[in-house]
Amino acid sequence: MDKQIENEYKIESIENFRDLGGIRTNDGKTVKKRKLFRSAALHDASEEDIRRIKELGIDTIIDFRSCREADVHRDPEIDGVAYYNLSLFRERERHEGVERTDNDEPFYEMMIKASYDHPTRFAEHLSSAYRNLVSDEVAIAGYTRFFEILASEECDKVLWHCSAGKDRTGIAAVLLLEALGADRQMIRENYLLTNLHLGRTLNEILGKVDELASKHENYEIIRDSFKTALSASEDFIDTCYETMKEQAGSPLEFLETYLHVDEEMRKKLKEKYCE
Predict the structure, then answer these.
(1) 199 or 169: whose pLDDT is higher?
(2) Which of 128, 155, 189, 245 has the highest Cβ tally under 10 A?
(3) Which candidate, 246, 269, 112, places its Cα nearest to that of 181?
(4) Element (H, E) at 253
């Protein structure tokens, strides 16, 4: 793992905050530092970390959470920063393990109890969600707008996030890095770095699994399923790539056909975000 793609900004109150800068591209360039940032939700950000965001010069924040999530856990308003809420899921649907609401604990309790008779349900649902992120028309529209914002003159330094900064945010990073022609192995490593940055959230939820399911005959399977669903998994990113290949033949063709990221836009993005 290249040291340069790890978080160096000491953001304490925002989980999974990191800079994509330093990732190599296949034409010998690298992604510029202090341009492209990703993270978990910002609603618990401290005043000190909001100050750091301002100091980094971030001028655009893209929130991939649903309208309900964004309304319940509002991002802080930061002077001079443009905010976009690009929901990637249909508002009428309940995406277990992806969407967070105002009362997470009963939700996870519900998912744990629902796993008693179907121990791998949570992980299976997340796999399905990853397929939807690159196939459902609502997600396609959201990611298309994501690229439009990145390519706009108004956007210079951008931070995008969802709730944990793992699934919706992670696939946004995958798609952008593919558009920039990044090294595929470094794309995968950047996605998997989430596992080093979400320890607090993972441990809290696994503690709830231990509390409610430790005496159940399927306890070990249930716990493993939750651990998989709450982690950045090789299987999840593989599902994303396989779905893009099924739909368009390759990630590049997917970007062109579904997200309208053609050669001209890719050139513009490379000039803007690579050096």
Answers:
(1) 169
(2) 155
(3) 269
(4) helix 251-258
* Strand 18-19 with 36-39, pairing: antiparallel
- The structure's pTM equals 0.87
> Does the pLDDT at position 60 exceed 90?
yes
Report the interhelical angle of 137-151 vs 263-273 (nearest 10°).
50
Contacts of 42 (CB under 8 A, 6+ apart): 14, 61, 75, 76, 161
Helix, strand, coil shares of the chain as percentages rounded to 5? Answer: 50, 10, 40
Amino acid at residue number 51: R
CA 71 distance to own-chain centroid: 19
CATH number (domain holding residue 239): 3.90.190.10
Residue showing tokens 């709730």: 163
Separation CA 220–CA 236 (nearest Å): 21
199-241 pLDDT, tens digit each: 777 778 788 888 888 888 888 888 888 887 888 999 999 999 9
Q: Report pLDDT for 10.
A: 79
Q: How many domains does the chain have?
A: 1
**Closest by alpha carbon to 85, among 94, 96, 73?**
73
Q: Of 222, 228, 109, 96, nearest to 163 (Cα)?
A: 96
Residue 235 lies in domain:
3-273
